[in-house]
Specification:
By secondary structure, the chain is an all-alpha fold. A 3-stranded mixed sheet has the order 2-1-3. The chain is globular and about 60 Å long.
Length: about 325
């Protein structure tokens, strides 16, 4: 083992010299953060205020919006300060806190999408038993699992990271990440790499497999149904599929990027790709659910004092979460 060194600060080295473009970059990122906060807060407020939206599907959407606020708060305030600073030092407590917030955010996103997939599976495949299988007790239990299990798992992971002896303080990232801490540890990197990879696979494999399985069952259940039924199912499930696709692409991109030597990549492209999984889902989720789901869209128009144009020969939308097949 190499001689370990202790430094109270880590140095984030991926910030580029933007020259006179620092301020436009700051304003642009501030606008993105402002949109994330306002759009997701509006989604939560609409779902809380409207009693017709007090159903499992909309409660889980509110969870997604709350998680977007939580995850973006772990990145943007610090990131915005760094954009205007010449030095990019972050203290050890702040660094490990940021790791905890960002990685619990990604875990929460996956567990919430998993219970949303189960909700859609029950609504489509067992519509007559929906209210029995998705009663308040089940919703509370699923919510507890979605929030508590990732928090416990990440608490153990962070406590392990904190104890690692470190042989440096340079983090090749614009925010603190667990793998970057592992890379500067004095412990053999190969051992840490295998352990970290197996842990990540274990955390992701079960939820991903479950979501794929539920949607395979939904596709099979709808295969021989009428076009009207398939249209209702598509209208209900499409926002969730889009959210899951966005999360999958951005998180897998970040996982692949973490294992690459970033010096071989374009610095600007590396920064954009490393931010994607924290920025894109919080931006897209309120747009996807707000525009695609009629019940939420109706209340958005109501709050905005806008009346949607009545479509000729429009069909009545089903207000509940169940889909009769």
């Amino acid at each position: 083992m190499e001689n370990s060194t202790y430094s109270f600060y880590f140095n984030l080295t991926m910030f580029m010299n933007l020259g006179h473009y620092y301020y436009p970059a700051f304003v642009f990122c501030l606008l993105i953060y402002s949109f994330i906060v306002s759009a997701n807060f509006a989604m939560i407020l609409i779902i809380i205020r409207e009693k017709t939206l007090h159903e499992p599907m909309y409660i889980f959407i509110a969870f997604l919006s709350f998680n977007s606020l939580y995850g973006s708060a772990g990145l943007f305030p610090r990131f915005l300060m760094d954009l205007l600073s010449d030095t990019h030092l972050i203290s050890r407590p702040a660094c490990f806190t940021q790791i905890y917030i960002i990685y619990t955010y990604t875990s929460y996103e996956l567990t919430i999408l998993s219970i949303m997939a189960y909700d859609r599976y029950v609504a489509v495949c067992h519509p007559l038993h929906y209210h029995r299988k998705m009663n308040s007790k089940i919703v509370y239990t699923l919510s507890f699992i979605a929030w508590v299990c990732p928090a416990c798992n990440l608490t153990i992971t962070i406590s392990t990271l904190v104890k690692l002896p470190l042989c440096g303080n340079t983090i090749q990232k614009i925010y603190c990440a667990s793998w970057n801490i592992v890379k500067i540890s004095c412990v053999t990197t190969a051992v840490n790499s295998i352990a970290a990879t197996l842990g990540a696979i274990a955390m992701a494999a079960i939820p991903f497999s479950f979501i794929f399985y539920t949607y395979l069952r939904i596709v099979v259940a709808c295969w021989k149904k009428s076009s009207e039924v398939r249209g209702k199912v598509l209208q209900s499930c499409l926002p969730h599929v889009i959210s899951f696709a966005i999360y999958s692409v951005t998180s897998l991109t970040d996982a692949a990027l973490t294992r690459r030597n970033l010096e071989e990549l374009n610095p600007f492209g590396a920064v954009i790709l490393s931010l994607a999984f924290i920025v894109i889902p919080p931006v897209m989720n309120p747009l996807v659910y707000g525009l695609k789901l009629p019940e939420i869209r109706k209340h958005i128009f109501k709050i905005s004092c806008l009346k949607p144009r009545a479509k000729k020969n429009s069909r009545r939308t089903v207000p509940s979460s169940t889909l009769t097949m």
